[in-house]
Amino acid sequence: MTEIRTPLRRRPAQRRSAERVQRMLDACADILDEDGYDGLTTTRIAQRADVAIGSVYQFFPDKRAVAQALALRNLEVFGERISARLAEDDFADWSDTVGAIIEIFVEMHRTVPGFRVLRFGDVADVHLLDSDADNNTVVAETLRRMIVETFDLRDTPGLAIALAISVEAGDAVLKMAFRSDPAGDPVIVAEAERLINRYLASHIEDS
Fold this sequence. Notes:
The protein has helices at residues 15-35, 42-49, 53-59, 63-88, 98-111, 115-118, 135-151, 157-180, 186-206. The protein is mainly α.
């Protein structure tokens, strides 16, 4: 997997410019919640962020690039919240983090503007985060790096595959949870955790 590339045409050099870019991302999130990705346009982003349309194009070539920047921000927030939880709690084993990670994901789905629509980018492009890897692979790689560092694990191909499968399975079941309940059906969320825990337990026993 290649290093994730920024969607920005240029990086904001001043604080005011950086704050303007964040307003654009906030506007993108609000529009996604209201009208989905199909309702997103650069003109609406400019209007909602109270900036000139030229300011949008100064940093982003199109609406996809704005969505990409928002998806990357979502991934950054997700990683920061997981890192904080790993530092706070005393997990006996890396597989015990499953419940905490799912809890963070569900909470972001409920509270972070735009996340329930965009999440990590699939609504726009399955390769939104990285042109050489699908979005779930990028998420799995992010989790792998954190888990290896926190628990001082051997970074093996088997671990990478186990986490990739866990992310794919969790993604599918959690989508089901939010289809049946906008807040996430708690029964299905619990089943997602149980499914992944059992899979990882069998993986650990076999390895």
